[in-house]
Amino acid sequence: MSFCDAIWEDIAPLRRAILAHPFLGELADGSLPMESFRHYIVQDSLYLAEYARALAIAAAKAPDGAGRLEFSDGAKVAVQVEEALHQSFFAQFGVSADLAHATEPTPACLGYTSYLSGLAATRSYEELIAGILPCFWVYWEVGCDIKPRAASPNPYAAWIDTYAAPAFGEATDRVRALVDKAAADAGATTRAAMDRAFRTATRYEWMFWDSAYRREGWPV
Ligand SMILES: Cc1ncc(CO)c(N)n1
């Protein structure tokens, strides 16, 4: 079994918790309150800006051309998606440029992005890309899970289609192959650190949706 297949199996309970989260159930049937989606999408644009930085650092750290190409391309796409969110979803859901600029990251968003920045700053390439992978893989699984049960029409159809798109699945496969290669070349200590980074980032994925569902802000 490949390293990625094994860690994917290990986090099966986390994945089940994600797929069962009411944010995603309501997004699929179209009943998710617009205010919750607005909260999510503004936070996601803040997230993607920071995620792009983590990808760019992964590109800089990559030991081979395949990694440099994949992560620099990923950094570019994350910035493009962030801009597309501004243009399409922000317009559709009535998020003004002023609101987007004035919004601070929530604890869940800042926790996730700071965690990835920390991996990028002080940890190995192997650990960093293991922390980067759930962003791809979890969304691909969510997209594929939701698409067949999504109501039609659905105000969130464009979001669902983005993450159920074959191109997103292909990008996930390529990043997975890079993580498998890094794990195959690494020792047991590094592999254990990769396992932890993958699990931690997946937990933050759950927290990100949960935080939007509860429209969480800072307690003080
Ligand atoms: C929080 C989060 N994780 C993953 C993705 C997928 O790109 C996203 N847009 N946002």
TrEMBL record:
<dbReference type="InterPro" id="IPR016084">
    <property type="entry name" value="Haem_Oase-like_multi-hlx"/>
</dbReference>
<comment type="pathway">
    <text>Cofactor biosynthesis; thiamine diphosphate biosynthesis.</text>
</comment>
<dbReference type="GO" id="GO:0009228">
    <property type="term" value="P:thiamine biosynthetic process"/>
</dbReference>
<dbReference type="Pfam" id="PF03070">
    <property type="entry name" value="TENA_THI-4"/>
</dbReference>
<dbReference type="InterPro" id="IPR050967">
    <property type="entry name" value="Thiamine_Salvage_TenA"/>
</dbReference>
<comment type="similarity">
    <text>Belongs to the TenA family.</text>
</comment>
<dbReference type="InterPro" id="IPR004305">
    <property type="entry name" value="Thiaminase-2/PQQC"/>
</dbReference>
<keyword id="KW-0378">Hydrolase</keyword>
<dbReference type="GO" id="GO:0009229">
    <property type="term" value="P:thiamine diphosphate biosynthetic process"/>
</dbReference>
<dbReference type="InterPro" id="IPR027574">
    <property type="entry name" value="Thiaminase_II"/>
</dbReference>
<feature type="domain" description="Thiaminase-2/PQQC">
    <location>
        <begin position="9"/>
        <end position="214"/>
    </location>
</feature>
<protein>
    <recommendedName>
        <fullName>Aminopyrimidine aminohydrolase</fullName>
        <ecNumber>3.5.99.2</ecNumber>
    </recommendedName>
</protein>
<dbReference type="GO" id="GO:0005829">
    <property type="term" value="C:cytosol"/>
</dbReference>
<dbReference type="GO" id="GO:0050334">
    <property type="term" value="F:thiaminase activity"/>
</dbReference>
<keyword id="KW-0784">Thiamine biosynthesis</keyword>
<comment type="function">
    <text>Catalyzes an amino-pyrimidine hydrolysis reaction at the C5' of the pyrimidine moiety of thiamine compounds, a reaction that is part of a thiamine salvage pathway.</text>
</comment>
